[in-house]
Amino acid sequence: MAIVKSKLLNQLKKNWPGFAHKDIKKLSEIILNEIKRALRRGNRLEIRGFGSMSVKIQKSSIRRNPRTGQKVAVPEKKVIRWRQS
Questions:
Q1: Of the four listed, 5, 8, 22, 55, which is most buried by Cβ atoms within 10 Å?
Q2: Contact by Cβ (8 Å): 61, 71
């Protein structure tokens, strides 16, 4: 299930009608940007009652294209790991 940012903002507005929509939007942008910055720095992020996120390095490997069966080399890359709390 994917969450669209606009739906999240609308739900927050319903829960807290006393806040202006622009304030809720700005607050959500600040929170999401801080999460991005922490993960870019390689820090582990924990939000109690939600989950924790960290960046791991996925080793390079040889995989198969499911359509053709051809072997494909996948380079090393960084991936985000999330664990629900």
A1: 55
A2: no
Average pLDDT, the chain: 93
H-state helical runs in 1-85: 5-15, 21-40
Q: What dihedral do alpha carbons 8, 20, 48, 58 form, nearest 10°?
A: 50
Q: Residue 82 corresponds to which tokens in the numbers above?
A: 């999330």
Token couple for 2: 């994917």
SS3 56: strand
Backbone φ, ψ for residue 44 (5° rounding): -90, 140
From the list 66, 40, 68, 69, the residue with the least C-alpha distance to 53 is 40
Q: Are 60 and 72 in contact (CB under 8 A)?
A: no
pLDDT in tens, 5-28: 899 899 999 999 999 999 999 999
